Amino acid sequence: xxxxxxxxxFSATLKPDSTEMxxxxxxxLKRILGSVGAVVAGLFATIVLSISSDxxxxxxxxxxxxxxxxxxxxxxxxxxxxxxxxxxGGYITARLAAFQPMEHALALGLIGFVLAIIGTVATWNGGxxxxxxxxxxxxxxxxxxxxxxxxxxxxxxxxx
Length: 160
Known about the structure:
single chain; mainly alpha
């Protein structure tokens, strides 16, 4: 008798026309899409701001023309504004996350960490126009802390 009741209950949740199952599936899909959307928005903001700043720096001759070596001071400036944009990306991600904002911000930081490693490997022996080794390593090192700080700033704002 108990086995039959369990079977009927279990079978009812597996019926494709069950509205409860459909609602649960839609809810999970919305959560996943919302989470992905929050991280993608933070990543998009970080990338667009970084590339736009690079273009502006080259256009205004703060940086030399593309393909020419930059000084350590210029790479330091790039590291600073990329770190700030990483904080902003973490903030945006945490702000848009419907739940667990810090985890979403850290997910963005992890993505930035992986992308920075890929960039470092791709440019490691690329020549003087890619700068000295400290610059790509610094981008690896600041990726997660920057996103974490953005998430922390958003959490502080949300608690006010």
